Amino acid sequence: MTHSATSRDLRQRNRAAVFRRMVLDGETTRADLAAACGMSAATVTNVVNDLIGEGLVRELGFVPSVGGRPIARLGVVPDGAHVVGADFGEEWVAVKLFDLSLRRHDEVRVELDRRTVTGEVVAAAIREALDRFRAAHPERMASLVGIGLGLPGIVEHSADGSSTLFAQTLRWRHLSIDTVFDLGDVPVFADNVAKTLTIAEHWLGAARGSAEAAVVLVGRGIGAGFVNGGRVLQGLSGSAGEWGHTKISIGGPSCQCGSRGCLEAHVGGDAIVRRWLPDEDELAFTGTHGVDRFLAAVADDDPRAVRILDDSIEVLGLGLANLVNMLNPERIVVGGWLGQRLMAVRGAELERAVRAYSLARPGQQVAVVPCQLGEDAIATGSALLPLERLIDGELRAPQPAERGHAATRVARQRNTKD
């Protein structure tokens, strides 16, 4: 019994390693897979044959070899499976449909009123997006294997498989993800937005290939994800990465979390704009439009705006230096809508501040770089949550016959509604 279980586990690990490598590499060969995964040619051949049988991998053609048989090029079947990733930004939900090669096929963005948003409102927006996808892409949605959610706050996963969201800044103290985000017969997976950003950048972006990295999300709120030993750090209950609520002052500005002196309260997007426009209505200039107006003033050499930006870069650099001293990362990847803007206009100054406030040796070793995936990053990382389960064998992709039945059922449902 033990031997059988061990053999099955080994086969599953081999399958996951080969499948993951193929998703990452796009096109490859059996020999390259064997070298990359540290497996024998025979083992790789067996795994590849199984994946071909599941409709997830195919041969793309042949390239000539020196003195032997032509070498088959391999790749994933893009339409072999599809995943959906959702990015919740408090004022909107962006829901995106990806195929197995992580090509984005469609996107639905639903605007929300931050003053009245609830978990149920967000779930309804995601259902609306899924309905639109089913109407526009019935064949693709027939091979949907799962939905991933990037959510603000702490996403806690229990031993029984249930998930709970603690979003203190939204006053969502104990929201059952399994109940509120029940989206039908398709499994739903969730994590904190900063962690989904980290997953995406570690798989496909600026943290790829790094065993030790910090990926920070700087927007209205601030968070981080940490790659340690090649894996994303979760912590005891999933709250590792609440870097935005580290305290950098005593009796400082009040924070959305209810405390004072948090890094987020100093250099989050709304905090910066409120310092610049203290008398404006709070909702009139929050979010991206407020920051864009602020940065336009900086570009026009508004002395007060320039001084506030200078101060903000120093404070953010100090916060990043604390991560350097604690974690000794190889890379700090700066993302989020505000982080991307700051890197574009003041990236060099931010890196200088990080080195100035870090201990000399780890400060010399770290690189501060912008995220590479841009606005797709969080939704892509969210979509990777179900894709990782498919790769690891926890989820199964529908077979072609099953997809045909599902697509027909979706079409009938749509005609009935019409």
Automatic annotation (TrEMBL):
<protein>
    <submittedName>
        <fullName>ROK family transcriptional regulator</fullName>
    </submittedName>
</protein>
<dbReference type="InterPro" id="IPR043129">
    <property type="entry name" value="ATPase_NBD"/>
</dbReference>
<dbReference type="InterPro" id="IPR036390">
    <property type="entry name" value="WH_DNA-bd_sf"/>
</dbReference>
<dbReference type="Pfam" id="PF00480">
    <property type="entry name" value="ROK"/>
</dbReference>
<dbReference type="InterPro" id="IPR049874">
    <property type="entry name" value="ROK_cs"/>
</dbReference>
<comment type="similarity">
    <text>Belongs to the ROK (NagC/XylR) family.</text>
</comment>
<dbReference type="InterPro" id="IPR000600">
    <property type="entry name" value="ROK"/>
</dbReference>
<dbReference type="InterPro" id="IPR036388">
    <property type="entry name" value="WH-like_DNA-bd_sf"/>
</dbReference>
